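Just wondering, does anyone understand what follows?

——
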Amino acid sequence: MGRRRGEALEAAILEAAWDELSERGYANLTFDSVARRAGTSKPVLYRRWADKQKLVEAAVVRRNVIQLTTPADTGSLRGDLIATLTELSEKRGPFLTQLSLLLAGYFAETGTSFAELREMILAGRRSGRDEIMERAIERGEIDPAKLTPRIASLPFDLLRGETMMTLRPVAPEVIEEIVDTIFLPLVR
């Protein structure tokens, strides 16, 4: 087997960086450990990423892009939100909890916020939240004048908070309460 190059090499390095981050945390991740795990050399890493921060950001972005969820399109805002929040809770909740714990050192060292990291991950792509809200506006389910950015993010923020506090998927009745009792009355 020949040497890996290009995308295959980069994928192997970013997977190794993610594995090192997952197993050792940000503080203990080194270019040496990532290079060893990826079966390459430190100079190969330094040609692509100037420092540990940039390497970790690239690994997190790659992992998130692989796991991006397509928002549900059930034909109603309520249905879209419940389906999407349920999927996020079941599939992404544990990942986001793990990510926040693993990156505590990264956030402290770099001064980067979770919101800034989210923007790096989205990299100009429209968020699933925005797709859901735009469809609801088109269907006449939302008063656009009431839909501020903070209100639009509210159901997702509440889901994230619940996931962080319980460290498990959010119960269906809690998701329904977030949607029916808290969010929908604010936008209608």
Observations:
- The radius of gyration is 19 Å.
